[in-house]
Amino acid sequence: MKKISLLLHTIVLLTSSNLWAQANRNTISPQLKTRWTNEVGPESLNAEYPRPQLTRNSWTNLNGQWDYTITKTNEQPTSWQGKILVPYPIESSLSRVKKNLKVDEALWYKRTFNSTLSKGKRLLLHFGAVDQLATVFINGKKAGEHAGGYTAFTFDISDLVKEGNNELTVKVLDPTDRGIYPHGKQVSNPANIYYTASSGIWQTVWLETVPDHYISDIKMTPDIDRGVLYLTVTDKEGNGEGKNGAYTVSVMDKREQVAMLTGQTGKLIEIPIKDAKLWSPSSPHLYDLTIKMGEDEVKSYFGMRKISVARDEQGIERIMLNNKPYFNLGTLDQGFWPDGLYTAPTDEALAFDIKAIKAMGFNTIRKHIKVEPARWYYHADKIGMLVWQDMVNPHQGLPEGAKKAFEQQSRETIDQLKNSPSIVAWVLFNEKWGSYDQQRLTDWIKETDPSRLVNGHSGEILYVNEKLRSPSPNAYVSASMTDVHAYPNPMMPLKQPGKAQVVGEFGGIGVFVPGHQWNTNTAWGYIQEKPAALITKYSMMNLDLQLMRDKGLSGSIYTQPFDVEGEQNGLITYDREIIKIPFEKLREIHAALNPDIGRFEQVNIKEMDLTDPVEKYEKSYRAYLSGHKENSSIVNLAEMAKQSGDNTAVRLLTEDFIKEKNTAFSDEDLRFIYHVSESVSDPGFTVILQQREKLNVLMGGRKADNKIMNALYRDHIEPYATLQNGPDWKTAEEKITPYGTIGKEILLRAKTIHYLNKKDWDSYRPVAREYLKSYAQYLTSNEKHMLEKALDNP
């Protein structure tokens, strides 16, 4: 009943954290820029080879401008709406489109490429990732399909191409959180810890020419105890299976040849690595590897390292790196960008995040509910960073087909990332988000990859403000570690025989930095601190970790390195421009837990102004009233007032702003009015009503509609729906009638949820049927199912 009683507030009364604008079809300014935003253009899109652990010289990058159009799911395109910049999600500003893809829509891409395929050669078409369902056509003929938005796939298109120009078409369906596939932190209505969707092609698309008999995959597993690298090479002939071809492998340490052997594809060989230089965050040493098989040659690299759980000198089970205790001092990286969403604007930006995290003094990243492009892991390998890689959780409602989709995505994830030395742990589930068959799946991962640790359930036991929110009597079955989530302060996890102990998430200290926010309407975090208090609070948390380390703690993951949309609990702002605790101070705080940081690159980021934002607002307000308006515009001052809780000033300043503009509102003006207007009595509410359709496009989805319904419910319906003697629907209807169909929608929904919660089925059925008939297309699948199921109650 708790979930149902909150239903109206959690689903209808939405305030948007999706602040993208549909400003211009050709050049679209993001809500928040990064230093790389302006570097992105059709001719400068991810020119680096996209798969560093299996490289060839003969490849063609297909990133750039493609034609695009949107149709209904089962329709074919009859025309093309414009250009989209691949590989940026259509919802992102960097795509140059910035549109939300609806659950009943298909996104189509089209471009041409030239082929001069010679005899005895094959042409492979690679996609880094397409979210969620992709169907690929070459010259109108189907090349293949792929389901799942996080892993790479390849089609052999040799038999479909012709000499000269060829047409490549891709159809994409992405129901996001309304389908059966893993969608990560992407949702249709982003807020708090959930973010804007990233639909369509979001990683590099490329062509590769290979011999008819070619190397299709390699698997490398280091064994530092025996001083060998285990290698298995897989091949293919034509469009079928391999034929166990002979190959030669050469291992180089810079310019020195370390080993040279021959092998047969499909069979495991051992390559001796004498006096191996071990890989670690402080010394990320990598060996180069070249494999030649007939006419084919590929290059790769590997690191000699070992990750394990074993007893230290005091008999405490700890995480060991290269057979020595190694505290995994980590942070929770979500991999979102204000301009590119799931896609970093450039390869330099992709590497920047890891460099910044290392410069803070961390040695571990928990890659949270996302699989990054292959080059991200390459940068982690080169820079020196341990990675705990999350599986992208199944759809939390576990609709039919969701388990199969999750397991397929997890298999592909492990296979795709199996060779990266930086990855030391697989994280199966997170905080019971769709968890099931935990022991079977944990055992399966351990059997699939015995060379790494398995965190079977990060945060299976969860504390918030020291209150147990998620008990679990049989926690951490079969896992390599026990993992507690504790917000805000870290807590000691359970002790179980044979397992390490880690704090899989803690922290979440919210500090907002004016001028560097995605959403000025919120500063979400598990706790809020003023800028000057952040260092002390963060330092105290790390002192707690040191004490816990002495009692057996092996790792910790702080939430989080960067602000993300509505979350402003990062150590660096979302635009990667301001660090809230200086790098030097962070390294000093972390030194006791990560004493051997090794080499790191200096990162250029401004330090946060420690002045209390409320104090800054008060000074700006005084200056404004004294006539010094050049130092603080109405917009900036109103946003500062809202963040400081001065709602009176917000209303007065917004009223002046609207009067000054006199209906000549730009997109930026409308975005501002949208943010500062919450109530029917706010001066901006009338503007939102008048500009409703434009704002829906500007903000994405039905954000303006939700804003209006939120205000109508709170001001005109709730006072009459919660009377002690029962609802006065007649008066509520009189209040909302002037607002037309949108008023009717929110009133009908309010009645539906009221009678559902009261279990007044005779009153519920007629209003629920009317509501579902008119507005079912706006509901999530879970909500629609719940409302329909309730119709069957006696």
From TrEMBL:
The UniProt record lists the keyword Signal: yes
GO MF entry, a single one: hydrolase activity, hydrolyzing O-glycosyl compounds
Record GO biological process: carbohydrate metabolic process
Signal sequence coordinates: 1-21
Keywords: Glycosidase, Hydrolase, Signal
Domain Glycoside hydrolase family 2 immunoglobulin-like beta-sandwich: 214-305
Domain Glycosyl hydrolases family 2 sugar binding: 85-208
SUPFAM superfamilies (alphabetical): (Trans)glycosidases (SSF51445), beta-Galactosidase/glucuronidase domain (SSF49303), Galactose-binding domain-like (SSF49785)
Every Glycoside hydrolase family 2 catalytic domain range: 348-459
InterPro entries, alphabetized: Beta-gal/glucu_dom_sf, Galactose-bd-like_sf, GH, GH2_Domain-Containing, Glyco_hydro_2_cat, Glyco_hydro_2_N, Ig-like_fold, Ig-like_GH2
Similarity comment text for this entry: Belongs to the glycosyl hydrolase 2 family.
PANTHER family listed in its UniProt record: BETA-GALACTOSIDASE, BETA-MANNOSIDASE
Name of the protein described by the UniProt record: Glycoside hydrolase family 2
Lineage, uppermost ranks: Bacteria, Pseudomonadati, Bacteroidota, Sphingobacteriia, Sphingobacteriales
